[in-house]
Design a protein that fits this description.
It holds the Pfam family UvrD_C_2. It comes from Vallitalea pronyensis. The protein is 40% helix and 24% strand. By secondary structure, it is an alpha/beta fold. The strands form 7 sheets. Strands 23-22-26-25-24-21-27 form a 7-stranded antiparallel β-sheet. Strand 14, helix 19 and strand 15 form a beta-alpha-beta unit. The termini are far apart. Adenosine-5'-triphosphate binds next to helix 16.
Length: 750
């Protein structure tokens, strides 16, 4: 890097330190001057000797600083520095008074005594033997950490990852990594195969080592799950591995065999094709199928007066159920598992509300849940009863960054206490979450799953709702009649036409579904900017911050959300001398920006303050899809404050910015389960795998008041005509059929 320099000096003062991410601001005394150093420095203490590589930068508030790229710190040798170091509180249990006495007694030998002869240390007045042992331990741990971090940096591992790695393996760090650097990809969140592979090759690991080949194969299987698949056909797996690892078939075959013996993967034959799963996902599917079978085994009698009760509800609400709704209500009262599916406005909520009334009348406890915070909020509003996110319902107990698998308090040993569980927006539930949910539901509890099977499948692996419905073994009621269309909107009507593959009217005759023809990316961008900045706020009486949402099919490209966000940020919230900014990866966050939380974080604290800045409410948890506004970027504390809906304010560390994205535009995938008053959709061209019917259907059904499509009618029609779905390799349907059919046979034999 240009302008890099090396500095060496004693750490005079620690001004700020964040123990979570290692960020530190300190003053270092160089030979001729003091300099403020900033950057990630772990375990650096006052009095230490620091040797750092970095660049001098000018901070607009704090002036000249040295930005550290990498560093080494040494325990000081001379008496004076030893005293400073011990007095600084670097070793818990030793303060300035004790430090003086230790240095007085042992001089330059103090550190050796602390580490090697704690019993001698205990001869200093005020230090018990127990305390001496503790001090020796802390000292040892700090030395280990320093050693590990230097070791890791030598292999080009950034400090942020070095800290994570040290925290995971502690004193085993060097052993684990020297033995098999690919463990990093398994154990450390954020380290994938590629990074582990770079480290390994850097360390001289043989390109054809079996560890490398196995890690590569596992990486391909795991990457497939991030694309929604549960397995990969074996031939495809081998083909990808050959290209990625540059390894011959025989070696890959041997590695797969070993992995099968070690039970990390499993292969099965389905439709004469060999398919390979990572063992975890194979069991996840199997467990979901088994649990659905167990729960379905319970039937309940329809209470005698049900018909009368339904009639009473109809009279009260002046809504007369159609045959499907009536069937759904009754099936809800009699089945162990029921799926209710239907498009927008088909009366799902109305049906569920009546079902809940009748179930509660029988004295049954009903719990309500949905996969996202937004969906749970909508369910709460629609039913007038408290609904929770599935994660919250299952009482997430472990959500550390280094832990990839969520742990839930609620499981087979500690199941949910309810008689009936109703889950909405099930199309968004992936197979892993469904497995966690079903673990916590004991047979005898009724499960009612509600969703629209034609929405896009979950972001995570599996195609759970569709597979369950298509298995034809679980009771399903499809609500077909659209109740909303006549009275209310063209949005609902068009959504149903799109779903049926019929072309919609684009002549703007209806006042809530608009099409603006633009044939170029530039034309679309310009149109969207004016729409969002001036026309729509006037027309729909809401703003791009609250109400209007741009939804795009893609992330990349001129009309992908990354570029749209840059363009819309420049239009709606351009740079200003009074607005602080922070660059993170390739994004600039600026005060005033609209942002979205992109993962569930149950540990993030929020506060609500009144106008006098008194905290009136506080709690934990910010959820995937929550949208807010940056209200402050503080370069001194390295924090970004975001205000979410309901005035909840959350402070993010700079490192936590990886959980945020600009949100002027979001992908249609990400918008699942959310509704917005106004939806603007740019549609021009794109890969044919994305220009599909259910993507358009999902986008249109997100709008409550207005839909505006900007682009080409031919693309809209192309999408409507394209009923291909993105193929997902899943076998849940098959597993459900297998278990239901096998058990049915067993019963016949018995
Ligand atoms: N049997 C019925 N007769 C008349 N109106 C009905 C009937 N069922 C539902 N409705 C009305 O139709 C509208 C849509 O119903 P509801 O909200 O239950 O549908 P939904 O499937 O949950 O919709 P969405 O998925 O869009 O939220 C509501 O205004 C509701 O009052």
């Amino acid at each position: 890097m240009e302008n890099q320099e090396v500095i060496e000096g004693i750490v005079e003062e620690i001004i700020y330190r964040n123990d979570n991410n290692g960020y530190c601001v300190c003053v270092v005394a160089l030979e001729d001057d003091d300099v403020t150093c900033v950057g990630t420095m772990v375990g650096v203490s006052e009095g230490e000797q620091l040797r750092a590589v970095g660049t001098y930068v000018k901070h607009h508030t704090y002036g000249h600083q040295f930005q550290i790229e990498s560093y080494q710190s040494f325990i000081p040798k001379d008496r004076h520095a030893v005293l400073r170091y011990l007095s600084s509180g670097a070793i818990k249990g030793i303060g300035p008074g004790l430090a003086k006495r230790i240095v007085k007694k042992f001089g330059d030998d103090a550190f050796r005594i602390i580490e090697e002869e704690p019993e001698t240390l205990a001869t200093v007045k005020g230090i018990s033997e127990k305390k001496a042992q503790e001090v020796a331990m802390v000292f040892y741990e700090q030395r280990e950490m320093r050693k590990n971090i230097i070791f890791l940096q030598e292999y080009g591992i950034s400090l942020t990852y070095a800290i994570k790695i040290h925290n995971r393996y502690k004193e085993r760090t060097m052993d684990v990594i020297s033995n098999n650097p690919y463990k990093l990809a398994e154990d450390i969140f954020g380290i994938g195969f590629k990074m582990a592979d770079d480290i390994a090759l850097n360390m001289g690991v043989d390109k054809f080592s079996i560890h490398r080949i196995k890690a590569g194969l596992m990486f391909i299987l795991n990457r497939a799950t991030t694309e929604g698949h549960v397995y990969v056909p074996r031939d495809e797996l081998i083909e990808k591995a050959e290209a990625m690892l540059d390894a011959a078939y025989e070696l890959l075959d041997q590695a797969l065999l070993e992995m099968q013996i070690e039970k990390s993967v499993i292969s099965k034959i389905v439709d004469e094709e060999v398919i390979t799963y990572s063992m975890t996902y194979y069991h996840v599917e199997l467990n979901v199928a088994r649990k659905l079978y167990d729960l379905s085994g319970y039937d309940y009698d329809l209470p005698e007066d049900t018909e009368k009760e339904i009639e009473a509800i109809e009279k009260d609400s002046d809504i007369y159920f159609d045959a499907y709704q009536r069937e759904a209500i009754k099936e809800g009262l009699t089945n162990g598992v029921l799926i209710v599916t239907g498009g927008p406005g088909t009366g799902k909520t109305t049906t569920i509300n009546s079902m809940i009334d009748l179930l509660e009348k029988q004295g049954l406890d009903v719990l309500l849940a949905a996969p996202t915070g937004r969906a749970a909020k909508r369910m709460t509003e629609a039913t007038g009863r408290q609904a929770q996110t599935i994660h919250r319902l299952l009482e997430i107990s472990f959500m550390k960054e280094d832990d990839r698998n969520n742990r839930f308090e609620k499981n087979e040993d500690n199941p949910l206490e309810c008689d009936v569980l109703i889950v909405d927006e099930v199309s968004m539930v992936d197979v892993v979450l469904m497995n966690s949910l079903l673990k916590a539901v004991i047979p005898g509890t009724r499960l009612i799953l509600v969703g629209d099977k034609d929405q896009l499948p979950s972001v995570g692996p599996g195609n759970v709702l569709k597979d369950m419905i298509e298995s034809d073994r679980i009771k399903v009621v499809k609500l077909e009649k659209v109740f909303r269309q006549a009275r209310e909107s063209a949005i609902v009507m068009n959504a149903h036409l799109i779903n049926k593959g019929e072309h919609v009217d684009l002549t703007n005759r209806k006042s809530d579904f608009f099409y603006i023809k633009r044939a170029t990316t530039g034309g679309i961008l310009d149109e969207i900017k004016t729409l969002i900045k001036t026309r729509l706020p006037k027309f729909a009486k809401c703003s791009a911050y609250e109400g209007i949402q741009v939804l795009a099919p893609m992330r990349k490209g001129i009309l992908g959300i990354e570029n749209l966000n840059k363009e819309l940020q420049a239009t709606l919230n351009p740079p200003h001398k009074d607005k602080n900014e922070r660059e993170f990866r390739s994004m600039i966050f600026r005060e005033g920006d609209k942002v979205m939380q992109i993962k569930n974080n149950y540990n993030l604290a929020w506060q609500i303050k009144n106008s006098y800045q008194y905290t009136i409410d506080e709690g934990l948890g910010v959820f995937n899809g929550d949208i807010g506004k940056i209200i402050e970027i503080n370069a001194y504390s390295n924090k970004v404050k975001v205000q979410f809906e309901d005035n909840k304010v959350v402070q993010y560390e700079y490192a936590g910015l990886e959980e945020l994205e600009l949100a002027y535009a979001v992908t249609i995938h990400k918008s699942q389960g959310s509704e917005y008053p106004v939806v603007v959709i740019p549609l021009l061209t794109g890969p044919s795998m994305l220009l599909i019917r259910n993507l358009l259907y999902t986008a249109v059904t997100r709008a409550k008041k207005y839909v505006v499509i900007v682009g080409l009618d031919s693309t809209i029609y192309q999408m409507i005509d394209n009923d291909k779905e993105i193929e997902r390799y899943t076998t849940l349907k098959l597993r459900i059929q297998e278990i239901f059919d096998t058990m049915a046979e067993v019963q016949v034999i018995e």
